[in-house]
Structure formats: structure tokens, C-alpha cells
Amino acid sequence: MAITPMPALVLAVATALVGCSPSRGPGQTQNGTPVAGRWYSTQQVQDGRDVFGVQCAQCHGAEAQGVTVDWRQRFEDGSFPPPPLNGTAHAWHHPLTVLLQVINQGGVPLGGQMPAFADRLSDKDKLAAIAYFQSFWDDEVYLNWERMGGTD
Ligand code: HEC
To answer: What is the mean pLDDT of residues 125-142?
Structure first.
């Protein structure tokens, strides 16, 4: 079947593109050393630690590890607890555009508890917050995220 080799080929091409043009990813407009194989820079991770600590950590945990209750178990009001963002839940199913959308809109439109950050954070800070929680993802999770769309 000609179909079988396609995903590998697409991935190889995508990897080659990322490798050849580091200015391609949305995070690469920032200064700072790019983190090897990732769309963001070390500077963004540092900035993101501050943003995350102030805006996100009270719900998602200082190291994006989530809260102590099971994030898959609804509260009595039907909403979900804040999930971990450190790669152990399913944030890696969402490409960068969707992660930004969640942060912009929050969970309220879907009956959730997360506030909307569209007008509360600059895009630079939103991307930095994403860079920060993605810095906890190991390479396997990150690679799977790229397969799910990543920065496309
Ligand atoms: C008041 C608590 C709260 C704050 C503050 C908060 N979140 Fe959330 N977040 C949630 C909850 C709860 C969910 C699950 C969806 C829902 O119910 O709204 C969620 C979901 C998410 C998701 C989707 C994860 C997935 O696996 O689909 C992302 C990404 C996220 N938050 C990022 C952030 C970032 C980045 C910040 C800070 C800028 C932040 N959140 C601040 C409560 C919060």
C-alpha cells in the first residue's frame, strides 16, 4: 500500500522544515536561544515561569502538575478540575493554535471554570506560558504533540 509510508514521510518533511528554518515557529520571533528541537526559546520558558506563576499556578500547579484530585472526575456542578499541563494529561492533543484558543476563551463557553485570558495577557505572555508548561514535556510527549499538529 502506498498509504503506509506517508505519515513517516510527512513527519520527516516537517522535521526537516523545523530544522532548516527556525524562524518558522510562532515563538521564534522572541530573542533568546532556541531550545533544541522545540519551537520556543529558553528566554520564553523563563518569562513563562513568571506569567504562569501569577496567572495559572493557583489552578494548574506551580510546575503545571495539576491539583491533587483526579482531573478526569467531574465536580458536582459538572465542571472538571484543572488538568495537569505537564504532559501527563491531554494538553498535548492540542496544537499550538488550539492551546492559544483555550487560553483566550477559557472554559466558560463550555461550562468550565477556567477564566478567559484574551484581554488579560499579551500574545507574548500567552506563548511564554505555553513554552513554560511544555518545558515539562519529555521528548516523547513533545514528538506526539508535533504529530497531533504541533505548531502547524
Ligand atoms: C481558575 C482556575 C484556572 C486558571 C487561573 C487557569 N486555568 Fe487553565 N484550566 C482550568 C480548568 C478548570 C480547565 C479545564 C477546562 C475548564 O473546565 O474550564 C483548564 C484547562 C486548561 C487547558 C486545556 C488543557 C487540556 O488538557 O485540554 C489549558 C491549555 C490551560 N487550562 C492553560 C492555562 C493557562 C496557560 C493559564 C494561565 C494563563 C490557565 N490555564 C489558568 C482552570 C484554570
So the answer is: 98
CA 110 – CA 102 distance, rounded (Å): 10
**What is the Cα–Cα distance from 115 to 107, expressed in whole angstroms?**
7
> Of 11, 22, 36, 27, which is closest to residue 100 (Cα–Cα)?
27
Q: What is the pLDDT of residues 21-80, one digit of tens each?
A: 344 445 444 567 999 999 999 999 999 999 999 999 999 999 999 988 899 999 999 999
Alpha-carbon span 131 to 58, nearest angstrom: 18
In one-letter notation, the amino acid at residue 110 is: L
Select the more confidently predicted residue: 31 or 81: 81
Alpha carbons 113 and 124: distance in angstroms, whole number: 23
CA of 95 to the centre of ligand 1 (A): 15
The answer to whether 71 touches 81, Cβ cutoff 8 Å, is: yes
C-alpha 112 – ligand 1 centre gap (Å) = 9
pLDDT of residue 16: 40
* Cell numbers for 72: 478526569
Dist. CA 20 → ligand 1 center (Å): 33
> Residues in the chain, how many?
152
Indicate which atom in ligand 1 lies nearest the CA of residue 81. 12
